[in-house]
Amino acid sequence: MDSSLAQIVGHMGPAAIGVASVLLAMALASLAVFFERLFAYARSRAASRKFAAEARALLEADDAEGLVKKSGGNKSHLAQLLGTGAQTYLSASKKQTALSPVEATRRELLRKHEALTADVRRGMNVIASVGSIAPFVGLLGTVFGIISAFQGIAKEGSGGLGSVSLGISEALYETALGLVVAIPSVLAYNWLSAQADSILLALEQARGEFIDFLEARHGKQAHGA
Question: Which of 134, 204, 173 is nearest to 5 (CA)?
Answer without folding.
Answer: 173
